[in-house]
Design a protein that fits this description.
This protein is an alpha/beta fold. Helices cover about 50% and strands about 10% of the residues. It has a five-stranded mixed beta sheet with strand order 3-2-1-4-5.
Amino acid sequence: MEEDADDPVHQGPSTPKKTRLYRGDLSKKERPKHRQQKFRTDWLKSVLINHSKGKNHIQIMQDASSKQPSITLFTKSPGLKKQQLVSIAETKLAAYFAEHNIPFLGADHLSDLIKEIFPDSEIAKCINVKRTKTTAIVKNVIGVSQKNKLATKLKKQKFSLLMDESTEIGTVKTSCVVIRFYDESTNQVESVFWELHVFDTNNPSSANAENLYNSLMSTLSEYEVPMDNIIGFGSDGCNVMMDLHNSVASRLRATFTGIFIIKCIFHSAHLCASEACKKWPRSLEDMARNIFNFLKSSSKRQAELKQFQMFLNTEPHKMFNTYFQTEGVVILELHDKIINLYKDILLCFLKRNYVLQTPLEKIYPNNGEFQLA
């Protein structure tokens, strides 16, 4: 039995050599010997060249060339990237809307129109600016940038404040602040928008003198503008702005000694003209209003007036609505318009030389000598 155990013929099946190699059970003699193969230069001409012509190698190189950036990109001088150019274009478009007072609703169709007009432009293809983005650019980019630049100038220059309050059609109370200063970059006195304050719509008394003054001072302090640079204040003559005791002007006088305060010249001239007109007969103002009311609501009468002026070969006169909807002094201009219109009517009945060369107060329409035949 012992002889059968030592006989390899009678032994069971042995473990394959590959398995024992994987396990690491091979003896030193059984392990395969590693022979280092020397490099031959003819591989460059035969093996590598043949490999470069293979289908797999060609396919791999084509895929890699479409994704991998060219090495020439790393040797060119650095410039603006495409996304930066797109951002600059969108910012300029938003500035164009704001500068020319164009409704932001038009931006919804502008980017699509630009893509159709310039199909070969890579920048135009990437422009995507609608009204929401246009509003955000104007408020958060252009507005903030310009205000920071203005604040930097105000830290070095003396300036005056121009302020006017208003109530919109939706009963929203607002206050607009404009800065007037000498700009060294333009060598001119500039008037630049600074801030628009919006007050609580649920509280009718929120836009009082104290809140107006505090909002004005807080916006200057926010940008660290020196208060000593304030030398003047201008506004309309309402009580909340120019009252002697409880107003924005009285608080500025108490805070800034020697500040120059002036009311709006147009408002003051309007009040003076209104008081002067009260000394005139009421019939003069009524006549001017009746002429306007007679023509404003009838397109037929306006067309007949235009035809009448063309027949007489006189300069067409505009409607009087602009004179009744302004705070400026327009008494003299309105007087001249009525006189010219009256002369045009006289030309229908009297000789032309008599009407044009005779002072109006000396014209007698009943004088038969100068009447038309």
